[in-house]
Amino acid sequence: MFFFKKKTAAFLAASILLVSLAGCGEPEKEPYVSPDFHNESENNTKFDPNKENASVTDATFGDAELMYDAEPLDDISEEILASVSDAETLEAGVYGDGVYYNGLGGFVININETDWDFYNAEGVAKATGLSVEDVNNFWYGYKTTKDAETSYCCIAYDKKTGSNIIVSYVNPSVTLFPEITSDEYLEMALGRYDNLRVKRVKFMGELWSCLDIPAEQNPAGRRVCYAKKSGDILVLVTFTMQDEQELSDAQGLFTRTR
Could you give phi then psi for residue 89, rounded to 5 degrees? Predict the structure, then answer.
């Protein structure tokens, strides 16, 4: 069992993990830089969850696919139980034998018998603009979420289409915004897009904040960003779908552990 822990450089800009890995899993040369916590404008205002916020029943773009409800694992082997237990204490989670376990998020990503694969530390570093040392420091616990604004836990990619899934954390305390919610965090990116809004959707049996960016507004393809708060840390799962690959294909890799 290989322990999959990580760390990443502290961006002043809050990263929504909108990193794009283009064709056949090759990462872009320029990593995505997200909205700045310190840049207030008419397009970067405080999100009001009671105003213009879509509910889980809204029939807006992509909701039918976003209403994904993975059942928790019923028959969990001793090996998986041990991995999940490790993932509860190891911030970046753990992985082995084609399965990634994330204790903070409470889910498993299983890529066995699929065209998907996980990037190693070198691949994650290249995709995110970090050093390999930065990535390994977090993966192996030499640094924690307290040491960086954004920490990348896992990047999975489809070897045929180049679609990808990024699991990461944001520590808002680094930028002196410890009380920011998952809705507010995703809302900071709305100024980049037309007629989009943050929604709350059901993902793996829980309500997550969601920003669903259609392919026509994003050169890398449809991008769906999920966020939820776990303690002081924002857990982010970002899907970038290419070559008309369905979001449900990527979501089907996820299973709840609790």
Answer: -100, -20
